[in-house]
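User: Reviewer 2 asked us to show a designed sequence for the structure in our supplementary figure. I'm pasting the structure tokens here. Could you produce the per-position amino acids so we can include them in the response letter?
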């Protein structure tokens, strides 16, 4: 395609947008609102997954042994747990070490006098698994070792079951809901643009007929409409993208009280999100604009 021809298509597309001001505004609003909601869900889903990954990397299984367990049994249990293929690392926590950790957590005055033989804490193991999704299954396998020993050496196996499973469920729910909303908003915006272009074509039937009489091809006539759809989609994506990036930057860089909710969670840095989010929204906006135009041209451009 010649540069002069491309320039003509661009001018005609812009002229058509300005000529149909209210319909163009309706299309821009539809795309802008749709992509803004889409962007919010993308940011929400991204950060939920980011937090989930952070939590998953810190998921540990705590295995507490019975108080009357023999020292010889401790090594056998450690070997049994360490030989599981799902286990990445196992660390033995002596009850005296556990007492020191407890002192640092709640203060030495609360555990004063619990030294040596009066230490009420059991020996324990800290177990890390290779795949966080396997933590529940590994915990059950570890507790199942009680069936191999007499008497059963393991008193309790804890990995924060409710918190971990709730986090996985929330992440899956947001991903599924976000996908449904994205598809619904994209289809809605696409049909609105198609109707806008259809009205534009109907208003220019006479002009199109004259162009056909002087030898214009179908492609030559259609291109300005494709350019118009692409420009509408691009502008409709840039506006919500700017709002989202500015808002997200202020949220991530705003001063935080140490006791506030925002201080307790880690959000993905803006520099990790800006480029992928920009590519997604702008690409989707242009795609919706062009696809909506294509739908309208196929159905309503009779040349």
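Assistant: Here is a per-position design you can include in the supplement:
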């Amino acid at each position: 395609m010649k540069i002069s021809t491309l320039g003509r298509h661009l001018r005609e597309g812009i002229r058509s947008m300005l000529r149909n001001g209210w319909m163009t505004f309706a299309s821009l609003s539809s795309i802008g609102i749709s992509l803004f909601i889409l962007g919010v869900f993308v940011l929400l889903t991204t950060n939920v997954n980011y937090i989930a990954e952070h939590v998953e990397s810190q998921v540990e299984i705590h295995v507490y042994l019975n108080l009357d367990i023999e020292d010889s049994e401790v090594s056998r249990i450690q070997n049994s747990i360490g030989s599981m293929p799902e286990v990445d690392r196992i660390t033995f926590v002596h009850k005296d070490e556990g007492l020191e950790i407890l002192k640092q957590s709640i203060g030495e005055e609360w555990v004063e006098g619990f030294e040596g033989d009066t230490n009420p804490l059991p020996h324990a193991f800290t177990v890390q698994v290779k795949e966080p999704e396997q933590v529940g299954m590994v915990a059950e396998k570890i507790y199942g070792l009680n069936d191999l020993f007499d008497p059963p050496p393991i008193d309790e196996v804890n990995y924060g079951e409710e918190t971990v499973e709730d986090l996985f469920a929330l992440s899956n729910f947001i991903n599924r809901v976000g996908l449904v909303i994205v598809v619904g908003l994209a289809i809605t915006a696409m049909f609105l643009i198609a109707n806008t272009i259809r009205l534009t074509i109907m208003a220019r039937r006479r002009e199109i007929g004259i162009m056909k009489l002087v030898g214009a091809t179908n492609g030559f006539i259609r291109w300005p409409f494709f350019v118009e759809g692409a420009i509408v989609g691009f502008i409709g994506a840039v506006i919500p993208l700017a709002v989202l990036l500015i808002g997200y930057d202020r949220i991530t860089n705003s001063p935080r009280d140490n006791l506030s909710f925002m201080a307790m969670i880690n959000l993905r840095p803006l520099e990790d999100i800006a480029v992928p989010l920009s590519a997604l929204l702008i690409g989707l906006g242009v795609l919706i604009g062009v696809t909506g135009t294509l739908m309208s041209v196929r159905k309503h451009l009779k040349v």
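For the response letter, you might also mention the following. The chain has nine helices and four strands. Residues 258-263 have pLDDT under 50 and may be disordered.
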